[in-house]
Amino acid sequence: MNFRNMEEFWAFYVSQHSKPSTRRWHFVATLTSIVFLLCSVLFNWWFLVLMPIFGYGIAWYSHFFVEGNIPASFGHPFWSLLCDYKMFGLMLTGKMDKEIKRLGKRPVLQGF
Questions:
Q1: Which helix H or strand E contains 111, and what residues bound it?
Q2: What is the pLDDT along the chain (112 residues), one digit of tens a residue?
Q3: Distances from the Cα of 62 to the Cα of 9, 17, 111, angstroms
Q4: For the chain, which residues make up each domain, given as ranges?
Q5: Alpha helices for 1-112 (secondary structure H)
Q6: What residue ranges are annotated as transmembrane (predicted)?
Q7: How many CB atoms lie within 10 A of CB 65?
Q8: Nearest to 106 by CA among 2, 15, 1, 4
Q9: pTM recorded for the entire structure
């Protein structure tokens, strides 16, 4: 599916992360990848190899076994990465629930 802009994709992305446990798994995945990035800068660049393995592995687990859908990163990898960090930031600041309610009042496009 083609999206006209990031806001359209964001609404779709949030709909694909409807369960709180899926969002929590994504939070852990993003946090883990950030830790590996920091370790690669501070200790050894080989930690960069672990970033996508753990980052995507944990997130994809949540889609296949918790949410029961296909990860949005399969069709839109760049926008999915941006939205993942946006969701991480909103969860970190406690604003994700408010964003879900805001988007719940709008029609959500179906992807794939």
A1: none
A2: 788 899 999 999 999 999 999 999 999 999 999 999 999 999 999 999 999 999 999 999 999 999 999 999 999 999 999 999 999 999 999 999 999 999 985 544 444 4
A3: 19, 9, 18
A4: 18-104
A5: 6-15, 20-42, 47-61, 77-92, 96-104
A6: 25-58
A7: 11
A8: 15
A9: 0.87
